[in-house]
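hey can u check if this looks right to u? its 372 residues, i copy pasted from the old doc so theres a chance i mangled smth
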Amino acid sequence: MASSRLRAQVLPRALLLLTAVSGFSAVAAPAPTPQADPQMQKVLDAYQALNPKPLETLQPAEAREGPSATDAVEAVLKQEGKAAAPEKVARVEERKIPGPAGELDVRVYTPEGSGPFPGVVYFHGGGFVLADLETYDASARALANQAQAVVVSVHYRQAPENRFPAALDDAQAAFQYVQSHAKNFNIDAKRVAIAGESAGGNLATAVAMRQVKQKGAVPVFQLLIYPFVSNDLSTPSHQRNGGGEYLVSNEALGWFWRNTLGSNWRKTRNAEALPLQATPRQLKGLPPALVMVASLDPLLDEGIAYADKLKAAGVKVDVKRYDGVTHEFFGMAPVVDKAKRAQTDAGVALRKAFSAQGIGGSGEEAEEAEER
């Protein structure tokens, strides 16, 4: 980090000298190394203290046993003398639903009230290779409470044992099952949204694309949290944030794609695997979306680019950027205040979608509504 700051100070002066001596046109100087929010930095430090091994050096089975961002949050809570108890939800239950290659594990989160509630079919992250329902438990709990909706969190088949399109097939089957069996979940079938983080954001929007193409039931809303939608690891945000300081590195992202798509992953252009490759025709008719991005995330640029593509295809989209935080921050509300803000924003957007009032909103708006 110190060397990066030094480069940020020295390079602009060097470029000015080069311009003066050679007559070359001046070029934009690299931006200073971005700084993490102090609370976010505590999580980053705690994660490094867990001695994680670079994912690209591991076999998937070994990587699945390694530390996660969730473990880092628990470590920070311990440091601060706080309880690591999960956020309370009225009811949480484990279920199994049919999938295309066997039963799928789901965890159902029901908020206070009698229902029928709106529904959110949620897909966890992990690069299609790692993580499970427990790893992303905090995010699903927050969404159930903030959106006042039943959240059905889905565990799908993972790569490399089950490569693309296995996870997408499972995700679509889960959405279709929840939609067609809404009463079994105390859900109103007319108000079912779809959501996901990282690889889960990829699955969420790809499911919506498939449902539109196949003229099936379409989610009323897409909540896409730092979606993993491109195999281009050369964007400015990848260059700026992909060195490994911020929980996920470019090498790890390539490792995810290689395990998911195979050795020719760089050449893949399939829009169902890489939604950023979708044409306007493939995106037309998708439901409104909220795309949430983090300033210290390698995926920042692709999230914004995908939102722009959705807008160009006529989809109503809101984008919210959270500065000073990294990939995976959304579920860190017990220790990162900006995660609380993001969860509130997500809840506002979902509630507006369920009431057909539009999308967007902010934590400030939610707080003002509560005060009124």
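Residues 1-33 form one domain.
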